[in-house]
Amino acid sequence: MRIKTGLGGTAGLLAVALVLAACGNDDDGGTAGGDPSQNADATEVTLTITDNAIAGGKNSEGAAWITDYVIPEFTAMQEAKGVDVTIEFEENGVDDEDYKTKIALDLQSGSGGDIISIDGIWTGEFAEAGYIAPLSDIAGDAVDDWDGWEQIPDAVQQAMSFDEQVYGIPVGTDGRVIYFNKDLFAQAGLPADWQPTSWDEILEAARALKQLDGVTPLQINAGVPMGEATTMQGFLPLLAGTGEQIWADDAWTGASEGLTQVLDFYGQVYGDEALGDPLLQQEAQGRDTSFQLFASGQLGILIEGDYLWRGVINPDGGIAPMANRDEVVGWAKIPAREPGAGIDGQDFVSMSGGTGRVVNPNTEFPQQAWELMMFMNSPEAFEALIAGGGARITPRDDVNAQALAGDPLMSFIAEEVLPITAYRPALAVYPQVSVALQEATGEVAAGTPADDAAQTYLGELEGIVGDDGSIAD
Predict the structure, then answer these.
(1) Alpha-carbon distance 139 to 361, whole Å?
(2) Phi and psi at residue 407, to the nearest 5°
(3) In the β-sheet with 421-423, what is the strand arrangement from edge to edge?
(4) C-alpha–C-alpha distance, residues 33 and 285, integer Å
(5) pTM, rounded to two decimals
């Protein structure tokens, strides 16, 4: 199994655990994994799949896949081996935070489904609280022997990893790129195959686009109204392009050189040169407005995830459809500040999110639960999941090569972006740190010097992580 992760340490507390403590936390609850050989030879097995999906409601496609494909196919496969398996599906269709609280309560009390779907960003919180365990601790050598790991890039495995241990298997992921309007580029004398190799080249293209009437050259999300989109679509990819990450080597990044360089870039975009619209960053629906501007040909360059392509400007059902999307929209990798300056010496960078599944360390059937996990993450299972559902990036290279063959942007992300991507730190205090970063970008967009905004952020960070938190310069 190949593992590469930049996460680690014990910063923060699981927020849900505070609620649990108030409710009377039982010291006997939770576990670090039991005996991998427990009930390994059982011929009658009952397993439960827990997911935030429900027929006719939230993630109904995923619920139907579990009910109509996973359960009957896995049951039949086990029956052929002489094992009588009963699979129960615990459906949920609630807000993500409500679902998170429910499964945390289950795991803390030693109960819950055998296979549980979680957001990758919760992995570190749950691991630190002892609610989940590394897969190899639960199912033993069978985990390392799974050939599926060879199809999941090292970077994608980070989505369900913590402290250099794999706690689950990713289900899906995404990637961030630079989108640009080829028609506007042609009018500005810019190439249709544009691929910037530095931040300066992004700014140079934006300056050329500024000469066009009625066009906003560049949109990079800033400020609190944009929410997590500011952090994921803007700040963190740029920070990775300086060679830094917001959490590394058991410490949060403070007012570092790289962080200040990122804020200075925001200042160049929204400052005197007016390469972006600072007022847009203050609107409650500013991100949606940027989508509409891009779709109508009034915005030249936009940094976004693959959601823009498949869910926003998609001519077939997008919320801001572009009939000529496939002809007009170009894309490029996000460059490091300069060649070789990115994390791991990379020339290009990205950020990704994603969900995954874990095996409950309290399961009575660890081997059978792991077999079910392997089955749910097999190429055949993913092919059944995405059949007729449009282009979707899976964690598996072999599936993506087939399923995304007809979609050039999604193929580009799967092949070119995922191998160089990074993930947010899966720690309990990250959301608060993210808001502090959003505030810093908003200040710079409003005219505050980058150095001053960096120092204000540092003060906020110190208040978030407290005296016991580690902050790197």
Answers:
(1) 9
(2) -125, 105
(3) 334-335, 348-352, 421-423
(4) 45
(5) 0.84
C-alpha angle with apex 230: 253 to 159, nearest 5 degrees? 65
Alpha-carbon distance of 406 to 57, in angstroms, equals: 29
Sign of the torsion angle spanned by Cα atoms 172, 60, 284, 179: positive
Rounded Cα distance between 316 and 336, Å, is: 33
pLDDT of 32 strictly over 80 = no
On the CB side of 27, CA atoms within 13 Å amount to 0
Strand partners, 349: 334
What CATH number is given for 15-173+354-406 in this structure? 3.40.190.10
Q: In whole angstroms, how large is the CA radius of gyration of the chain? A: 23
Cα–Cα distance, 89 to 102 (Å, whole number)? 15
As a whole number of angstroms, the distance between CA 351 and CA 430 comes to 15
Model confidence over 215-265: pLDDT tens digits? 999 999 999 999 999 999 999 999 999 999 999 998 999 999 999 999 999
Element (H, E) at 328: helix 325-328
Q: Residue 178: what are its φ and ψ, rounded to 5°? A: -100, 125
Q: How many CB atoms lie within 10 A of CB 249?
A: 11
For the segment(s) 176-351, the CATH number from 3.40.190.10, 3.40.190.290, 3.30.413.10, 3.90.180.10 is 3.40.190.10
